Amino acid sequence: MTLLIKNDKCLACGECAERCILDNIRVQTPPCRAACPVDLNPQQFVTLVALGRSHQAAEAIHDSVPFPRLLADLCPAPCQKSCTRRRVDQAVAIHALELYLVESFEPAADRFVLASDTGEQVAVVGAGPAGMTAAVRLRQAGHKVVLFEAQDQAGGGARDQVSPEMLAAEIGLLADLGVEQRLGKQIGASVDLAMLRRDFLAILLALGPEAQVDFAVREGAELDAEGRLKVDTKTMSTSLEGLFAAGQMLDGVDNQVAAMGSAQKAARYVDRYARGQSLELPRVLESEKILPVRVDAQRVNELRWQAAKGLLAASYVPPADGSLEEGDASLAAVPCLRCAQPVDYYDECWYCLPCEVECPTSALILEIPFLVK
Ligand code: SF4
Ligand code: SF4
């Protein structure tokens, strides 16, 4: 079997891998995506802009995170540090494109379809970007969600970093989706963990870097060597039944975007726990579908040679304030090298073609041997 991939069109979206009835195809993860704490796929949205499909590019971001404007404003863009094009001349202006998309296109009003009501009640403690993110994801999963916050408004540390108007607009989503907010409630003071454990099936702590966790220790939660809450980084669960943790209270989570990423992950496991499902399963499934792509030195040398000969689209430096106009967006998007693509992993094929038919950009062509035709 041979997959022919048109490099200028492949989004590394994985649709073909999902559709293959023999589970033969795997899609590589581009370095930009591998570096993103919230698992945005820059190859996807950058390529959609390059193809003149900016609206769909924005939708891809809106589908990936509940608070896209907050994310774009807070993001330190680790994707650009890992971008292959940076090793050739200049990183793709991924962050400027992300800002352009979230500012130019409103999320669809119906982008959140709530799963049917599970009848279970979960608590999220801490209403910074991480807690807000987890609250939305758990509400989407069909649980009743109560979000506790010590301050008298949500937003946490982001309140010092972004405009109050934008933050207020993003916070509005919580009420729109029916997340109950209990503000002015500090865990360990006006709310205690024993009460939460009695009233809620699962509790997710999403506290800041300076969080004191004595209240959890009193209930029997274990600490690690640094005196932080001991957390299984694969499932985000603590040693206490039904208690999970995310955000900057965890070791190694050192900015708001990494905190939001850890919250999205924790929400998946809290959901599984609340449904009585095993916490083991998704790890295997997730890792099975992902093939990291490594761009080696030889490939980088080839790319440098192509750039020197003018065979690569010219790289693009965004304005210092990071703002792009419509025409600039295309100039910024075209230089992406589209590092990742599908591969036929088991080399087995029935030539049934859903991979080719369902590819959103007609990037994939299956070469069918003459005898099969
Ligand atoms: S070939 Fe098409 S379906 Fe497969 S990853 Fe690329 S864009 Fe997606
Ligand atoms: S060149 Fe494109 S696909 Fe490759 S790392 Fe950079 S943005 Fe991602």
TrEMBL record:
Q: Name one GO molecular function term.
A: iron-sulfur cluster binding
Q: Where does the record place the 4Fe-4S ferredoxin-type domain?
A: 1-30, 339-369
Enumerate the UniProt keywords alphabetically. Answer: Iron, Iron-sulfur, Metal-binding
Q: Which InterPro entries match?
A: 4Fe4S_Fe-S-bd, 4Fe4S_Fe_S_CS, DPD_II, FAD/NAD-bd_sf, Glutamate_Synthase, Helical_ferredxn
Cross-referenced Pfam families: Fer4_20, NAD_binding_8
- Top-level taxon: Bacteria
PROSITE patterns membership: 4FE4S_FER_1, 4FE4S_FER_2
The protein's name in its UniProt record = 4Fe-4S ferredoxin-type domain-containing protein
Organism listed in the record: Desulfoferula mesophila
